[in-house]
TrEMBL record, chain A:
It comes from Methanothrix harundinacea. This is ABC-2 type transporter. PANTHER family: NODULATION PROTEIN J. PROSITE patterns: ABC_TM2. It is a multi-pass membrane protein. Residues 17-239 form the ABC transmembrane type-2 domain. Keywords: Membrane, Transmembrane, Transmembrane helix. InterPro entries: ABC2_TM, ABC2_TM_bact-type, ABC_2_transport, Nod_factor_ABC_transporter.
Automatic annotation (TrEMBL), chain B:
Keywords: ATP-binding, Nucleotide-binding, Transport. Residues 4-234 form the ABC transporter domain. Pfam families: ABC_tran (PF00005). It comes from Methanothrix harundinacea. Coiled coil: none annotated. It comes from the Archaea. Gene3D superfamilies: P-loop containing nucleotide triphosphate hydrolases. This is ABC transporter, ATP-binding protein. InterPro entries: AAA+_ATPase, ABC_transporter-like_ATP-bd, ABC_transporter_ATP-binding, P-loop_NTPase. Belongs to the ABC transporter superfamily. One of its GO terms (molecular function) is ATP binding. The lineage of its organism: Archaea, Methanobacteriati, Methanobacteriota, Stenosarchaea group, Methanomicrobia.
Length: 241, 322
């Protein structure tokens, strides 16, 4: 039974990669947008581009995972093709996990390209033992966040529109471009409630000379993962009650 | 042992009862029809039986598996053709079939062979590498059925398989369903086309407002209608507003409007009915075109059992009774 579910999770993710992710809209939102955004800041202040790299990677993680994830579920619910998956011997939870894995894999591909490109281009040597766990858990967190928005809203455009609110809020408040320490204290308090803060912190640690332990950040990101994925599963199950 | 055993199956949505404690059995190799108008609970019943909706009450067993805790096992032996053709537009015909086969865990060599076989059977082999999104409605329907058969199910659920198809495509699909039945597949078919149910089904359950009001063979159902006469009259001009007046002149008979100019009269004394129709037509200057005493059809049986007009039922679905 578990083997069947694992097989279906993989198949759904692979199918989604092909049908939704490796397409111009997902690629442009997932990679072109963060790169263009970062370039805008680079042109303003070219001397400290290295400081922008963790933020660029964090933005790529955020936008690539959520680029199509926020729409694929309710898009398929509308077309009836999600029901097609549920006719197979697979649970609703596994279908959702397959969708999350699709976003995760696409995010991993985009993020790997951006990370490798910047690290090689700028001759940076990140600490991989910090970079990899922070990157992987963050990809899962934001892919799950996309899935949650996808099941929260019935219309595709609603999910996409409402997802932009936390996405852009996080870009400004989580230390992607502006350091959190330079913000007013009440904004600093809000930033602590946003998952991208811990992704940026972890990535900064990975790119700094002596990285501090990011265990606490990983733990907090795991809590965010649970907070996003469990309600998403529950809500999808509810749609088929 | 029955292939499908349904007992007291109920589905309520926010106080509305869509399916109200229905019970029926389907034997191995039987082609069983669920017949009823829109909103009668056919699709809700199918959705519960294939695991897309959880029953509010009652129980159902398919292939010996109780759906409340063995739905995943049951799904391995079930093929489902939903009322919409919901495969993936971006994948080719062949890729869609292979993807479905993989979901059911069909081994690689078997799924390749089975997909090819089905593409040939459904006349889609030449278009196997074309995207599903480029197919005509009939071809999409055919591929959707092929996708439901790719894992060799023992039971096939067909929800309104011919809705939206042209006459030729619908006819060839019915032939295919008949062939599958001939091969011993147990089939549950929902339809609101009376002729389709009559042509294909071994037994029919008639559903009205979530209740099974009758289960019998098409012949058995028709026999009930034979107990009273059926006379059809066709007028030269619209008679829609005059049905009430005609009914009042025919006590003990039931007048059903078939379309703007045609009525069917069930029951009553046949000679009296004929006399009254001639008289009525003359008085109202309707120009009687034809009058026939006809052998009861399944449509007549349906009208007698449900009190519904079959024409209205076909219109509800946005199609024509065929």
């Amino acid at each position: 039974m578990i083997r069947d579910d694992l097989r279906c999770i993989y198949l759904i993710a692979a199918k989604d990669m092909r049908t939704y992710y490796l397409k111009p809209p997902a690629v442009s939102w997932g990679m072109v947008f963060p790169v263009a955004w970062t370039l805008a800041f680079y042109l303003r202040s070219p001397s400290n581009f290295e400081d922008l790299v963790p933020g660029l990677i964090a933005m790529t993680i955020l936008f690539s995972t959520t680029a199509a994830e926020a729409v694929v579920i309710n898009f398929e619910l509308r077309l009836g093709s999600l029901e097609r998956l549920l006719l197979a011997p697979v649970s609703t939870d596994s279908v959702l996990l397959g969708k999350v894995l699709g976003g995760f894999l696409f995010g991993l591909l985009m993020t790997s390209m951006v990370t490798l490109g910047t690290a090689l281009g700028l001759e940076l040597h990140p600490n991989l033992s910090t970079l990899i766990p922070v990157g992987l858990i963050s990809l899962m967190v934001f892919s799950s966040m996309g899935a949650l928005f996808s099941v929260l809203f019935k219309e595709v455009f609603e999910a996409q529109t409402f997802l932009n609110l936390p996405r852009f809020l996080m870009v400004f408040l989580c230390g992607v471009v502006y350091p959190i320490s330079a913000m007013p204290s009440w904004l600093q308090a809000i930033s602590q409630l946003l998952p991208l803060t811990y992704t940026v912190e972890g990535l900064r640690a990975a790119f700094s000379a002596s990285p501090p332990s990011s265990f606490k950040g990983l733990l907090i990101l795991t809590v965010f993962l649970i907070l996003f994925i469990l309600p998403a599963m529950r809500m999808l199950r509810k749609r088929f009650e | 042992m029955n292939t499908i055993d349904v007992q007291g199956l109920t589905k309520r949505f926010d106080g509305f009862t869509a399916v109200d404690g229905i019970s029926f059995e389907v034997g191995e190799g039987e082609l069983f029809g669920l017949l009823g108008p829109n909103g009668s609970g056919k699709t809700t019943t199918i959705r519960m039986l294939v695991g897309l909706s959880r029953p509010t009450a009652g129980r159902a067993k398919i292939l010996g598996f109780d759906l409340s805790f063995g739905i995943t096992e049951a799904k391995r032996g079930i093929g489902v053709v939903p009322d919409s053709s919901n495969l993936y537009d971006e994948l080719s015909a062949r890729e869609n079939l292979l993807f479905m086969a993989k979901l059911y865990g069909v081994p690689k060599d078997v799924r390749e062979q089975k997909s090819e076989e089905l593409l040939k059977l459904f006349g889609l082999y030449e278009r196997r590498d074309d995207r599903f999104g480029t197919f005509s409605r009939g071809m999409k329907r055919a591929l959707t059925i092929a996708a439901a058969l790719v894992h060799d199910p023992k039971v096939l659920f067909l929800d309104e398989p011919t809705v939206g198809l042209d006459v030729v495509a619908a006819r060839s699909l019915r032939e295919l369903i008949s062939d599958l039945h001939g091969k011993g597949l147990t089939i549950v078919l929902t339809t609101h086309y009376l002729e389709e149910a009559d042509l294909l089904c071994d037994r029919i359950a008639i559903l009205v407002k979530g209740n099974v009001v009758e289960i019998d063979t098409p012949r058995g159902l028709k026999r009930r209608a034979e107990e009273r006469s059926v006379i059809e009259a066709s007028f030269g001009r619209e008679a829609t507003d005059l049905v009430g007046d005609l009914s009042a002149r025919l006590p003990g008979a039931e007048v059903v409007l078939l379309d703007e100019t045609r009525v069917k009269i069930y029951g009553g004394d046949p000679s009296r009915v004929l006399e009254e129709i001639f008289e009525f037509s003359k008085e109202r200057n309707l120009g009687l075109n034809a009058i026939n005493s006809i052998k009861p059809s399944l449509e007549d049986a349906f009208v007698r059992i449900t009190g519904l007009s079959p024409t209205v039922m076909a219109r509800e679905k946005g199609g024509k009774g065929r």
